[in-house]
Amino acid sequence: MRFSVFLCLLVFSFVSLPVEAADTPEVKVENLRRAYHNGEHNAFTDLVRWKGKFWLTFRSCPDGHMVFPTSSIRVLVSDDAQEWEEVHRFSVKRRDTRDPHFLVFDDKLFLYTGTWWSGDGELPREDYNINQHLGYAVFTEDGKSWSEPQQLEGTYAHYIWRAAAHDGKAYLCGRRKLNYSEQEGGAGAPKVVQSAMLESDDGLIWKFHSLFQEDRGDETAFLFEEDGSLLAVSRSGGQPAQLVRAEKPWLEKTRKDFPDYIGGPLLAKWGERYLVGGRRNTEDGPKTALYWLEGDDLVKFTELPSGGDNSYPGFVELNDGRGLVSWYSSHEKNEAGETITAIYLAELEIVE
Fold first, then answer.
1. pLDDT tens digits along 143-185
2. Per-residue DSSP letters for 80-141?
């Protein structure tokens, strides 16, 4: 089944707002389009380029954003990032699959998902319990044949998120309760959450490497440099996000608070520059924003068309030096005037 590219209700290209640093380039955002909408809640994107094709993943759920066993992970592929074909879809029985992320590792394309235990119906917010979380993966060697979902050994009680590879090993962010406490639970209960850095030789069996965040654990995006040093952007609950740096073997870390909260953070290399993205809070509500990382500081260069439930961007660099970004948002309505939550794409061009 092939999905053609839908034009957004608002079709335009624009140049971003003036940047804050004189030597930071402006970025033109163009070819904005709605890439996928099927009437379900579609969210939490990631992008990768592998074997000469573009791969896009996200979660779909007919029951909405919250925790339901009816959710599934979809994988779309494209030769040109314009026309997309769904090539794989999977779910995990009695679990909510969400936050899918790609990893190219060991000559395979892995797709990781964190899963809430939900039973046969919606999991009430007061029953949320990270201690029942478990990571799953599917993988492929050719993009056509995919493995069955496999539970990831060593990830029970960890809410897994982005992964990265370096020097023959894979590394994964998993947030967890301090001491796996059973005294704290529910969506709003006070708790200490940590972020663990897990490592694996095969992408499926994981072991503890180190604590990445001791008390502000949350979604973390890793980026390994050629010299083996590590750069990361960590969401910190509702607090400002943090920039984290570490030299190999990444046991000693330095942290700096950004001025902004960043939800669903993206960290990617774009040429010689560093791109950061995610949800920020504004006077007009939550928006998906993109930034340059200049030293230890963020310089915002645009807010993508977005609103309501949104963010979780993915990014790949194109052959001509431009970039392709994905995200999800709830800023549009259908013909009946009902809010939809859809997947969007746009191309980015640096204006020198």
1. 999 999 999 999 999 999 999 999 999 999 999 999 999 877 6
2. SSSSEEEEEEE-BTTEEEEEEEEEEETTEEEEEEEEEE-TTSPPPGGG--GGG-EEEEEEES
